[in-house]
Amino acid sequence: MRERLGSYTARAATLGVAAVAVAAGLWGMDALIRRPLAQSTEPATIVFGEHVVLVALLLPVVLVALPALWRAGPRFVAAGIVIGAGSSALATILFTQAFVDGDPVTPVVLQKVQPLVAVSLAAALLGERPRPRFGLFLVAGLAGTWLMAFPSPFDVSLHGVEPVLYALAAAALWALGTVLGRFLALELPFEQVTAVRFAFGLPASLVAVLVLGAPLRASFHDELFIALLAIVTGLVAILLYYWGLKRTTASVASLAELTFPVVAIAVGYFAFDATLTSTQLAGVVLTSLVVLGLPGRAFDLVRQRPQGAPVLAGNSP
Q1: Looking at residues 143-154, what average pLDDT do you find?
Q2: How far apart are alpha carbons 263 and 31 in whole angstroms?
Q3: What gap in Å lies between CA 161 and CA 63, rounded to an integer?
Q4: What is the Cα–Cα distance from 19 to 23, expressed in whole angstroms?
Q5: What span, in angstroms and rounded, lies between the C-alpha atoms of 184 and 199?
Q6: What confidence category does residue 308 fall into, taking pLDDT thresholds of 50, 70 and 90?
Q7: Does any domain span residue 308?
Q8: In this structure, is residue 309 part of a structural domain?
Q9: Which of 94, 99, 133, 173 could lock onto 166 through a cystine, CB 3.0 to 4.6 A?
Q10: pLDDT in tens, 36-48
Q11: CB 109 within 8 A of CB 145
Q12: In angstroms, rounded to a whole number, what is the distance separating the alpha carbons of residues 17 and 6?
């Protein structure tokens, strides 16, 4: 029985990592819609519109998820608020603003410092302990991302301080969202975690619109594309992401998300006529190999929190 249980858990971890990687790949296609939108509509307006669409679509789940979150206890409520207000609303506004103020590459790449933040937070809050071999995947993934980011990887220049800060802040908030999403998954099914994220993100994005003085509505044309953005790279990707995150560790999930820059680079090449140097192509290959190698090893790359360890998750299983 124990061998069968172990086999099932390992298989679940493999499927979980694959799901996270596919979800991140969908986010990598985000620039196809978000980048043109950001040229004609305020970032806060875009993010608010996305949350309106998402909450409307998930309203029946929201009505079940919020009472379930309340019953889970104050730590889970706090985690839901941080994920919604920070990781869903504020991080997306910052990331979109980085597109407006900077070049199309810097925001995408800088937010991939996320694995470093996520691994640290997962250790502190969830008690995850990466094994030594995990370090090989982490270093290789970061190296591949670096090579992809810059045509001249040893002569780097980032364009403007503000977009860099926006992208780094978004990275930190998304990393926190990965860890706290894994925490919520201890108590809630993946569809309820998704609903909680958008339910708290909606009022937070409304506050952002009011504070920044952005309009509540976009043009009819842009609203159609905001709805498309919300459904494809929002609802579908997030549902898939939380389904996978429930089955693997936050540390491994943060590496699986490296499909994001791979797909984003491909989008830039095919859709926006970006050119790739030989080192960038090498980075694409290296990062792809890291992500492809994760599913089969996901189960033994990170040690789970020992029972009774005094971390955020308390004594939850």
Answers
A1: 79
A2: 10
A3: 42
A4: 6
A5: 14
A6: very low
A7: no
A8: no
A9: 94
A10: 888 899 989 999 9
A11: yes
A12: 17
Residue 113, judged by CB atoms within 10 A of its CB (0-12, 13-18, 19+), counts as middle
Q: What is the mean pLDDT of the segment spanning 291-300?
A: 79
Longest dimension (CA), the chain: 60
Q: Structural domain tally of the chain?
A: 1
CA distance 139 to 145: 10
Q: State which residues form the domain around 180.
A: 12-303
Amino acid identity of 302? V
Inter-CA distances, 250 with 63, 93, 133, 134, 185, Å: 27, 23, 16, 13, 11
Whole-number Cα distances in Å, 111 to 146, 218, 282: 12, 27, 20
Q: Please say whether the beta carbons of 253 and 244 come within 8 A.
A: yes
Euclidean distance between CA atoms 179 and 117, whole angstroms: 10
At position 196, the amino acid (one-letter code) is V
User: Percentage of residues in the chain with pLDDT exceeding 70?
Assistant: 87
DSSP 212-264: HT--S---HHHHHHHHHHIIIIIIIHHHHHHHHHTTS-HHHHHHHTTHHHHHH
- What tokens appear for 112 in the block? 């991939």
Separation of CA 309 from chain center = 27
- Cβ-contact 109, 157 below 8 angstroms: no
Distance, in Å, from the CA atom of 136 to the CA atom of 48, rounded to the nearest integer, reads 39
Strand runs (DSSP E) across the chain, as ranges?
Answer: 129-130, 302-303
**Residue 19 structure tokens:** 């799901």
At 217-228, the pLDDT tens digits run 999 999 999 999
In a domain, 315, yes or no: no
DSSP state, residue 45: H
Q: How many CB atoms within 10 Å of residue 4?
A: 8
286 DSSP 8-state letter: H
Is 5 contained in some domain? no
